[in-house]
Amino acid sequence: MRKQIAAANWKMNLTYQQGEKLLDDILKAKHQLKDHQQVIFAVPFPYLIMANSVVANEKNFSVAAQNCYHKKSGAYTGEVAAEMLHSIGIRYCVIGHSERREYFSESNQDLADKLNLLLENGITPIFCCGEPLAIREAGTQNSYVEVQLKESLFHLGAEQVKGIIIAYEPIWAIGTGKTASSAQAQEMHAHLRKVLADQYGDAVANEVSILYGGSVKAANAAEIFGQPDVDGGLVGGASLLAEEFSTIIASLK
User: Which of 82, 186, 208, 230 could pair covalently with 121 via S-S, beta carbons 3.0-4.6 A apart?
Assistant: First the structure.
């Protein structure tokens, strides 16, 4: 079975102390994860070492960075390199989140470069893709997201692609309270898997975990995660609440 993943994206929230308490409260729930289930906390850069230490002895709990830079090293003040993340034991990194694309003008080529650097450093990328409202209303979301995959991923070999997690996030559903229906989520996830299959074959496509991101909460997680091509979620606001996120973890199939 593909990895089923509950990934928490804290974004730019919580103090160090609040982050410690949140992790502690979630771990107190004593989640008994199965071998194919994974929980990942994408925390702000200053909290990476702390969070990694907190989950170090927890089965199938890991920590992710929320971003990295698309250059290996150099005079890029304020940026963080993939090699730096590797050096402190970080195994996952979110890239291409819609907020990075929108507010920081990250291009598909930038993300292709980030993918290369992360894979070179043994870090699993969580590659985000998704369409804005205007594209969804025009009915062209499939081709829009297909281009994102092709321009950022398709230079990679099949074995490399199997090592990537994809997160589909309809931009119109992030932080708005709107959520794609479970049918809409399944439709897009199935399309993404077909795009991968057309390029790399069914065997590769069926190994890639595809997460849904967009106003996932305790009340809707089980229905969304229950879809055959949805392999968990990339969770924003609801991941900041211990009880809420614990319920989401328990909703993994």
Answer: 82
Contact 42, 7 (CB under 8 A): yes
The total of other beta-carbon atoms located within 10 Å of residue 50's CB is 14
Least confident residue range of 24-28, 131-135, 155-159: 131-135
The mean pLDDT of 175-179, rounded to a whole number, is 70
Inform me whether the pLDDT recorded for 116 exceeds 80: yes
Query: Pick from 148, 209, 141: which is nearest to 173 by CA?
Result: 141
Dump pLDDT digits (tens) for 140-153: 999 999 999 999 99
pTM greater than 0.90 (yes/no): yes
Q: Where are the domains of the chain?
A: 4-250
Residue listed under structure tokens 């940026």: 79
CATH class of 4-250: alpha beta
List, by residue number, the catalytic residues: 97, 169
